[in-house]
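Structure in, sequence out. Go:
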């Protein structure tokens, strides 16, 4: 029987939540602030990706 990968599910859920929060943040911010908001959100997504990559790498070893 294949093992379930709950970390993968949690990671996917975290990405979906982050995308929804990004859409809300862009909708609520004034248009002049969109470039700054976009940079902050991309940095946050990169941080989440690094944490997920490190945690999944640590779990395999």
């Amino acid at each position: 029987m294949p093992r379930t990968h709950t970390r993968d599910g949690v990671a996917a859920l975290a990405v979906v939540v982050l995308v929804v929060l990004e859409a809300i943040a862009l909708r609520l911010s004034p248009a002049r602030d969109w470039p700054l908001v976009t940079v902050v959100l991309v940095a946050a997504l990169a941080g989440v990706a690094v944490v997920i990559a490190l945690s999944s790498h640590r779990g395999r070893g």
